[in-house]
Structure formats: C-alpha cells, structure tokens
Amino acid sequence: MTLPDKEQTPPSTATVLVVDDNEDLVDILTRLLSRYGMNALPAYNGPECLDIVCGTAVDVIVLDVMMPGMDGLAVCVKL
Questions:
Q1: Are 62 and 72 in contact (CB under 8 A)?
Q2: Is 55 helix (H, G, I), strand (E, B) or coil?
Q3: Could you tell me which of 32, 78, 77, 41 has the C-alpha nearest to residue 59?
C-alpha cells in the first residue's frame, strides 16, 4: 500500500484522536496524520481518551480494542 504524496492531498482540518497503549504506534500515526494536515491528538489509555473527548471536539477516533485497564470496547460504551 502506498500513500499519496502530501503535495497531492488536499489539506484536511479534521481532528483525529489516536488511542493506543503502544506509545510508538500512537507517535507514528499522529505524525503521519499531521503530515497530511490533520490535527492529530494522542491518548495512551481509555480514561485519557474520555478526558480529551470531554474537552475537545473530535471528528474521528482511532481506538485500540485491546488495552490494559479500560479496553476499547469499554471506551465505546462510555462514549
């Protein structure tokens, strides 16, 4: 799979919340999304995700299902 060049992709003002307990994965995804003009927000667990959503309007949440403590399904129920 190849991604389009950022010069060929129209800028997006979408806010994307990336939630995963794997900090490296969150860092990679937020950098990639930011490269394409999106406002990418990192969260490293379920409670942090819920705190961000309470104070910030997000358009999309990329959510890991298998996280320790509050997993992604429990987060979905709370959302």
A1: no
A2: helix
A3: 41
3 by DSSP, 3-state: which? coil
**DSSP one-letter string for 8-54:** TSPP---EEEEE-S-HHHHHHHHHHHHHTT-EEEEE-SHHHHHHHHH
Written as one letter, the residue type at 1 is M
Digit-coded pLDDT (tens) for 4-52? 665 665 566 899 999 999 999 999 999 999 999 999 999 999 999 999 9
The residue count of the chain comes to: 79
pLDDT of residue 10: 58
